[in-house]
Specification:
There is one protein chain. By secondary structure, the chain is mainly beta. The protein has 1 helix and 5 strands, in the order E-E-H-E-E-E.
């Protein structure tokens, strides 16, 4: 913990709140069903070795899920995108 570095975490979820967008009423717009939590940007901390790793392999962040280093990541602003959750709790 003494050497942990701050990182940006991008946590993606389903884009729509409805499971079957083809079944929405004709008088509704798809924007009415956008999931406001489809992207959550959070802050976290990672070991310095994680910031230097450019292997392209997803890594597990403890008890959260698997994250992949974003191509836009820089040494000054490291970014990790969540690719897979350890447990899917999303409900329609």
């Amino acid at each position: 913990a003494d050497y942990a570095k701050p990182v940006e975490l991008r946590i993606y979820d389903k884009l729509f709140t409805e499971p079957q967008m083809g079944n929405i009423p004709e008088d509704k717009d798809y924007k009415d069903f956008l999931n406001p939590d489809s992207l959550v940007v959070a802050q976290g901390f990672a070991e310095p070795a994680m910031l230097e790793d450019n292997s392209g392999i997803a890594v597990q962040f403890e008890r959260v899920g698997y994250f992949f280093k974003d191509q836009d990541s820089t040494p000054e602003h490291p970014i990790f995108n969540k690719t897979t959750a350890l447990k899917d709790s999303f409900k329609f």
